[in-house]
Amino acid sequence: MKAWCVSRGWVDGLFMVLLLNFALTTEARAQIRHYQWKVDYLYFSPDCIEKVIIAINGQYPGPTIRAHAGDTIVVELQNFLPTAGVVIHWHGIHQIGTPWFDGTAFVSQCPINPGETFTYKFIVDRAGTFFYHGHIGMQRAAGLYGSLIVDLRHGEKEPFAYDGDLRIAINDWWHRSVYDQETGLISIPFRFVGDPQSLLIEGRGRYNCSLVPTSFVLGSGDCVNCNISNPQCQPFVLPVEPGKTYRLRIANVASLSSLNFILEGHKLTIVEADGYYVDPVVVENLDLYSGETYSVLFTANQDASRNYWAAINVRGRKSSTPTGLAVLNYLLNPSSMLPSTPSPVSPAWNDFDYSLNQSKLILARKGYEVPPPAKADRELIFLTTQNKIDGRIKWAINNITYAPTSTPVLAALKYGWKKAYDLNPPPDYPSRPFNISAPPPNVNAKFGSGVYKFQFDSVVDVIIQNTNTLNPNNSEIHPWHLHGHDFWVLGHGKGVFHPATDSQSYNLKNAPLKNTVAVFPYGWVALRFRADNPGVWPFHCHIEAHLHMGMGVIFAEGWDRLPKLPKSILGCGLSKFYIP
Amino acid sequence: MKAWCVSRGWVDGLFMVLLLNFALTTEARAQIRHYQWKVDYLYFSPDCIEKVIIAINGQYPGPTIRAHAGDTIVVELQNFLPTAGVVIHWHGIHQIGTPWFDGTAFVSQCPINPGETFTYKFIVDRAGTFFYHGHIGMQRAAGLYGSLIVDLRHGEKEPFAYDGDLRIAINDWWHRSVYDQETGLISIPFRFVGDPQSLLIEGRGRYNCSLVPTSFVLGSGDCVNCNISNPQCQPFVLPVEPGKTYRLRIANVASLSSLNFILEGHKLTIVEADGYYVDPVVVENLDLYSGETYSVLFTANQDASRNYWAAINVRGRKSSTPTGLAVLNYLLNPSSMLPSTPSPVSPAWNDFDYSLNQSKLILARKGYEVPPPAKADRELIFLTTQNKIDGRIKWAINNITYAPTSTPVLAALKYGWKKAYDLNPPPDYPSRPFNISAPPPNVNAKFGSGVYKFQFDSVVDVIIQNTNTLNPNNSEIHPWHLHGHDFWVLGHGKGVFHPATDSQSYNLKNAPLKNTVAVFPYGWVALRFRADNPGVWPFHCHIEAHLHMGMGVIFAEGWDRLPKLPKSILGCGLSKFYIP
Predict the structure, then answer these.
(1) Most A CBs within 10 Å: which of B54, B77, B80, B83, as the mutation test of the A interface?
(2) For residue A61, is the peptide bond before it cis, meaning its omega torsion is within 30 degrees of 0?
(3) A339 and A401 within one domain
(4) Which of A186, A262, B26, B154 is deepest in the core (most CB within 10 A)?
(5) CB–CB contacts below 8 A, A to B
(6) Is the domain of A148 the same as that of A256?
(7) What is the 3-state secondary structure (H, E, C) of A261-282?
(8) Cβ A183–B41 below 8 Å, yes or no?
(9) Residues paired with residue B120 on neighbouring β-strands, in sequence order
(10) Residue B212 has what pLDDT?
């Protein structure tokens, strides 16, 4: 003890030197990674049927960004689309200090106009499996997305071992254009695009060309040239060496679908969710909701003389869409050797208990827990309902359907442009009693663009309460995604959330941190986050159609702490009149 | 004489009083006409096949604007498209004093962003048959157009008599989306959308539903629900009373096609072209090129017990597209009584002499001639060629393919933003010897966004020289349209324009004033105009695909005389950084 006391000053000094050295080293090693992207339309055949997609540098999916935590990403994006604006959201990146580069049209920035070049520049603040995607209209569903993988800072180590690092983005795919899909959503009567035609693994699937009319010719529509030997729709290949262990990173970038992932004959150990280590859980298959990312470990410990299916199936909605398939390729088998085994089968689409139970398995990894604050400063209860406005079907939160502004809300708050959005904040609680088990008695909602403003550094609870849709005996999964933050998932429940009792069961010990979480049919989920990131942040259902139908809100905190905004994000709506 | 001299002062005074009175009267009568437009996608079936169109207030074609010369048109346009910008060009309106409301994206203004409301406000300076249409990407071809009819000032009279005033806009129609069409134009290899599926008269045609595969289902593409009893595709009806004479206004708003109009059994007397009276000519049928408008008179002097076809056929391109048909309905026959006679047949598609001869018939009406200035201050010779850039097919003028800027050129010139466009003006003459009869030996062109700047009030001649395309033995019709001005058509010719000799044959007496004129295959056309309208004005081929492929130039004059520009037109490109 004495020696310790005597040497304390010296030890402290050494610690500081080491810390400084470490900081300098990592600082010195932190890189600036430059990318130049050209966004344009492209004919592409992800499932062997050709259609117009939105591609980056002629690629689909877009180029993978890979960086180390602490690196700065610089993306110079030039928009070559003839009429449409573009933005890119960096899903899971917190944009600390750069909320204007969050890439949400009319929230963090104006759309990048045709012909313009816009430069995103931000630090990837932590390691994990992320992705990026368009965040205006339904451009993600048109193909505008890619992987964003952040490795640990140099010198840091993962708490699990693996020999190889693989990644896939998984999604659903329609032959109708997103313009057509968007039009259906605003039509009276409502027209839903229906089941996806295909499920894609890393942008590849396979449609049954015999389903295409033989007389289907150029000039008759958007989908032509069904050709199953097209290289663009050959199954994606995951190459593995027998006996080795792999980390497989999976991002669900789907427009709509909850997807169940299976690696035929191989168990999966979940180790990461949305960029955080989770307590390892071994599962036969993995549910991923749109907006979620996971890392799983698996060992190539099966019969090495054959290949295996990597498969995705729709969950949560009754669907006729065939299984999406990729090939787990045991080297040295040829990658073209398709398994003769049938497509793997997932749990029943409506086995919601299975889904709920798997969600409850996701907990912070021991030793890496970041316990949530013990209590919240403010509680929001979001009654999410399907409604109508002027005869059009919408989604609403406490009876408000989000109507996008034409001015970036970030600028409106920062500069006090009061005509740019609804000054009345939307309600913290449902405005009237409700019954979640039946269609709403009064279906009419109201448009709003109000903002939930939080005291800086305050702790916020959000309870999302799911309900019956406009159709009797129907309630849908909604994966809610928060920008600029992660939240602790305090608990899931069935039926109506009862504040007094249900809050007693919150997990305050090893609640997982996530940026996306699903609320299940007729259920609720409770989240907590700290409003400590100055900016304006959407919180919304990650289903493209649902967001397009108004299922989102805007959170904001600390906007008065921000410096002058870059002019590059302005120019639309009122900002052209007021640019400071 | 003496009395006259004595009374001169009094007569002058009376004249001034009358003039003032007239001015006050017309001034007092000049109206402000307000319109509120919502632009959005809509499922529509113009030819019985349903697809997504761009509609105004749920209408296709868009609402007709009808005004008197001198009236002020105010259009508040709100853009409901989820991702695309919108602008509206008022085709044939000079925008004197309001060049910022000419409605050309990135020339006169920034696109109107999704969610924004933009107000156009301009005076219709003269009477005539005009139209309006989208002028970004290929939005006109997506259905974004309508008629703009300007009647004479109150108290003025037409130099011809008629009992009724009818109007139609005619165009070509594809089932593929314009996004698909645009993608084809930038693809390698080039993919042209091919023949239109239908020809429409006032937005209505009829596709043969038996050509649609029976197994063609929702989810397979953009075109569905072929239904020939759909009211949206019933033939347009032109109702007439037997024995009466009608003025029929026709606007060719086609994306591509030169269209020949026939009124079965009725002769047509051409009386107006592009808003100017022309010397009356009687024709059996009328060629109209995209961007042209005409008025014809006809008398309902045929057997009144039946109806007749109004018909349009493609000219200038070999086409398999069926005749577009409307019904000339002799009252009191039912309008549903379709003629049993076959569809009218137009001159052979490649009878270019017919086309040329008809163009030469169009001359200024006697007594209304406005002779062109005797000579020009500057002469431009535009060698228009089909070329390639980076393997993509383009069109070029003197080897420059127009590349749109991302900043409105009007603002760039007015405010001296030199980085916003190419400061080097494009060449006044072809840069090297050429052979118009064969594909160009060196196919490569260059992108450019330079501006032809004219001394204010100077007289400019433009000779457009047509050439062989990249394919042997092929040369195409190009209808050239000038914004902000009309031009005198001094002459048409075959083969290569020879300045010394061909200029001798210019019509300086009764040359017609027009805003659009066709140059025929392997031929030339010579135009003259006075650069007396301060602003920045595109001059381009009116074929959507050709403009998209760079077939245009920018003219400018007197921009330094303009007042501060409205901020509403800014916000894109460099303007967001420099907004004054």
Answers:
(1) B83
(2) yes
(3) no
(4) A262
(5) 188
(6) yes
(7) EEECCCCEEEEEECCEEEEEEE
(8) yes
(9) B75
(10) 73
Facing A115 at nearest CB: one of B83, B187, B404: B404
- Give the domain range for residue A12: 2-27
How far apart (Å, rounded) are the C-alpha atoms in residues B9 and B15? 10
Q: Does A422 touch chain B (CB under 8 A)?
A: no
pLDDT, tens only, B115-166: 999 999 999 999 999 999 999 999 999 999 999 999 999 999 999 999 999 9
Q: Pick from A182, A216, A577: which is nearest to B567 by CB?
A: A577
Residue B210 in contact with partner chain A when CB distance is under 8 A: no
Same domain membership, residue A427 and residue A532: yes
Inform me whether the C-beta atom of residue B494 falls under 8 Å from chain A C-beta atoms.
no
Cα–Cα distance between A370 and A366 in angstroms, integer? Answer: 10
Domain count, chain A: 3
CATH of the domain at A560: 2.60.40.420
Residues of B in contact with A215 (CB under 8 A): 213
Inside any domain, residue B9? no
In this complex, the residue of B113, B137, B222 whose CB is nearest that of residue A222 is B222
Helix/strand/coil for B259: strand
Which residue matches tokens 């996306």? A516
| Most A CBs within 10 Å, among B222, B319, B405, to test the A interface | B222
Minimum Cα–Cα distance from A78: chain B residue: B406
Chain A touched by B223 (CB under 8 Å): yes
Mean residue pLDDT of chain A comes to: 93
Does the pLDDT at position B14 exceed 90? no
**pLDDT given at position B356:** 96
- Residues in A closer than 8 angstroms to B572, CB to CB, are 113, 116, 571
Residue A334 lies in a domain: yes
pLDDT for A577 beyond 70: yes
Predicted-assembly ipTM surpassing the 0.85 threshold: yes
| Boundary-marking domain end, from A361, A386, A409 | A361
CA distances from B169 to A35, A173, B203, B234 (A): 47, 38, 7, 16
pLDDT per position as a tens digit, A356-387: 999 999 999 999 999 999 999 999 999 999 99
User: What's the rounded Cα separation, in Å, for the pair A145 and A135?
Assistant: 10
Within A389-534, residue ranges assigned H as helices are 409-415, 499-502
Residue A368 lies in a domain: no
The rounded distance, in Å, linking the Cα atoms of B401 and B254 is 23
Structure tokens at A204: 């590849």
Interface test with B, best of A135, A220, A575 (most B CBs within 10 A): A220
Q: Is the pLDDT of residue B215 over 70?
A: no
């410990």: which residue's tokens?
A301
Q: Is B42's CB within 8 Å of A406's CB?
A: no
Q: Output DSSP code: residue A136.
A: S
Q: Which residues of B touch A111 (CB under 8 A)?
A: 83, 113-114
User: Are residues B456 and B518 located together in one domain of the fold?
Assistant: yes
Mean pLDDT of B29-55: 95
Q: Using an 8 Å CB-CB cutoff, list chain B residues near A136.
A: 82-83, 114
Give a yes or no: residue A372 inside a domain: no
Extract the runs of DSSP E, i.e. beta strands, from A98-152: 117-123, 128-134, 145-151
> In terms of domains, do B340 and B235 share one?
yes
pLDDT score for B224 = 63
User: Where does a domain end: B299, B326, B361?
Assistant: B361
Q: How far is A32 from chain B (nearest CA, A)?
A: 25
Residues 20-79 of B with CB under 8 A from A: 40-43, 52
For A412-458, the pLDDT digits (tens) are: 999 999 999 999 999 999 988 899 999 998 899 999 999 999 999 99
Short-list B136, B162, B138, B142, CA closest to B151: B162
Per-residue confidence band for A224, with pLDDT thresholds at 50, 70 and 90: low
Residues 6+ positions from A231 with CB-CB distance below 8 Å = none
Has residue B568 got a pLDDT over 80? yes
Shared domain for B304 and B405, answered yes or no, is no
Residues of A in contact with B197 (CB under 8 A): 219
For A325-358, the pLDDT digits (tens) are: 999 999 999 999 999 999 999 999 999 999 999 9
Q: What confidence score (pLDDT) does residue A25 get?
A: 52
Q: B111: distance to nearest CA of chain A, Å?
A: 8
Q: Are B398 and B315 in a shared domain?
A: no
Looking at the structure, tell me whether residues A15 and A87 fall in a common domain.
no
